[in-house]
Amino acid sequence: MELLRQLKRFFWVAFAVLSIFVLGFYIGIHSGENVYYYNAQGKLDKMLHIIQQRYVDSVSVDTLEKNAIQNILEQLDPHSYYLEPITMQASEEVLRGEFYGIGIQYAILQDTLVAVSILPDGPAKMAGLLRGDRILKADTTLVTGKWLQVDSVKTLLKGKKGTRVQLSIFRKSNGETLPISVVRGEVQIPTLSSAFMYDKQTGYLRLNAFGDRTYQEFMQAVQDLQAEGAKQFIIDLRDNGGGLLRAVLSMLDEILPVGSLLLYTEGKHNPRREYYADKQGKLENVPLVVMMNQNSASASEILAGALQDYDRGVVVGRRSFGKGLVQESFDFSDGSGLRLTTARYFTPSGRSIQKPYHKKDDAWARYERGEFFLADSMLKNDSLVYKTKAGRKVYGAGGILPDVFIALDTTLGYGKAWQALQQKRLLGDFAFALAEREKFSFPFKNVQDFEHHFVVQESVWQDLAKHAQKHDISLSKINAKEQKEIKLWLKAYLGSYLYPNTYIFEKILAKEDTWIQKAAETFSDYDKILKSVKE
């Protein structure tokens, strides 16, 4: 029962996070035409005007207007929504793949903000900030103490292009407190979070979203991995909530032959529009495996659906989210905006994968139905059966069903000690302190040497146990499996601090990721899976 309760909490939290994540993206054309919608005179505008002029008490008309807009949109579909100015800005930054800031990756360690990585050619690098510097002040605001949160730090360091932030930093290497003035500039946000060789012939790429730079990032990573010997690729779209339509279409154009229908969209006020591959792609004959889970949505489903329809890649994992609606963006003069669903998208075979609006189909509902344990438990609409190019059955209305199913393994999962260490950020804290203390004494030539030969020695483990004990976490009675998990994560954290911008953190954890292991194994049955016709 305890496992059930934990899983239920996990799925509700995951679904809430996914909902926010999916709402943060839109597929379609960003439109600046908003005057008609914003100034239209009707009952709502007149009513708000009357309230403002005649109501008995003071009232915020702006709040009433915002609530009215949200209530109206709730009557439509789950993906039409209103964005406050600050949320609108954050959404645009992710899609553009850039914002204006100082260009550091930071961690909050021991209630102190620490620069763990300085982005090459970024504003902080130009100003002289070094990795390991402790930031004590940003302008007049103290940046230390238990109040520190990631969002509050972002607010201090981000700002308009060309504006200046005065930092007070402590440099541990020489014990000095120094003033550093940084002029904010463009900082790129990569949507490709990992790219490395999983084995001698398999390249692994993980995409967090589809933004303005995704296609360029993806193709550059493919080229780099092919230079290292990659003959086949795993594309990890787990928890990828979507993004820009043009990004995923550009990727598909590299994979499918010239003339292939990639997608079509259609809505009451949007006549059918078809999108075709129009160039000779660089990945047309390269084996591909796409990983998806219940949080993979929108543009992720466009990619997987098109590859599945053409028998051009194997989809591994679980049934995807089921978002098959196109949103356009309408901006308001106060910086807020409207994301309005204007069409549905359809995969090349004609599938609409949008799940029903009012039918309970979240992660917890799927878990309760047994869908995380048995492939046969996945919902299939037998009235919406389509065929792939090779004649395999695929289904519409409710997400992309995988070709190779991965069941939930209840024997996996991190123990209480690992969870406590992570909750209090102690693993990252300890790893960073170890990296600072021992970085010149580690006998490793490079990141590859570290990956293959570093092991957590008993002396390091005992030091970690003492550090954990100070925070009322005991490592003395944990089993061998949990100790292995903690050591793996400690190695990953340590590697990320010693060798920043190398994907070493993700690569170390990938070796123990059973999903990636299954995806890699799928290549041995690749042709058999794609040519099989399921009756």
Would you mind describing this structure in some detail?
- With 535 residues, the chain is of the alpha+beta class.
- It has four domains: 32-75, no CATH class; 98-188, Pdz3 Domain (Roll); 192-410, Alpha-Beta Complex (2-enoyl-CoA Hydratase, Chain A, domain 1), CATH 3.90.226; 416-502.
- 38% of the residues lie in helices and 21% in strands.
- The strands form five sheets. Strands 1, 2, 14, 15, 18 and 19 form a six-stranded mixed beta sheet that branches.
- The longest helix has 22 residues, at 2-23.
- The chain is globular.
What's the CATH architecture name of the largest domain? Alpha-Beta Complex
What is the terminal-to-terminal distance?
39 Å
Number of helices: 19
Shape: globular
**The first-level CATH class name of the largest domain:** Alpha Beta
| Strand element count | 22
List keywords for this structure.
Pdz3 Domain; 2-enoyl-CoA Hydratase, Chain A, domain 1; 4 domains; 535 residues; alpha+beta
Concise overview:
The chain has 535 residues and is α+β, with helices and mostly antiparallel strands. It contains 19 helices and 22 strands. It starts with a helix and ends with a helix.
Fold blueprint:
Elements: H1 2-23, E1 30-31, H2 35-39, H3 43-54, H4 61-74, E2 81-83, H5 85-96, E3 98-101, E4 104-109, E5 112-118, H6 123-127, E6 134-138, E7 141-142, H7 150-157, E8 164-171, E9 176-183, E10 185-188, E11 192-197, E12 202-207, H8 214-227, E13 232-236, H9 245-255, E14 261-267, E15 270-276, E16 288-292, H10 299-309, E17 314-317, E18 325-331, E19 337-346, H11 363-368, E20 385-387, E21 393-395, E22 404-405, H12 416-423, H13 426-438, H14 447-453, H15 458-469, H16 480-498, H17 504-510, H18 514-522, H19 526-531
Parallel strand pairs: 1-18, 12-13, 13-16, 16-17, 17-22
Antiparallel strand pairs: 2-19, 3-10, 4-5, 5-6, 6-7, 6-8, 8-9, 11-12, 14-15, 14-19, 18-19, 20-21
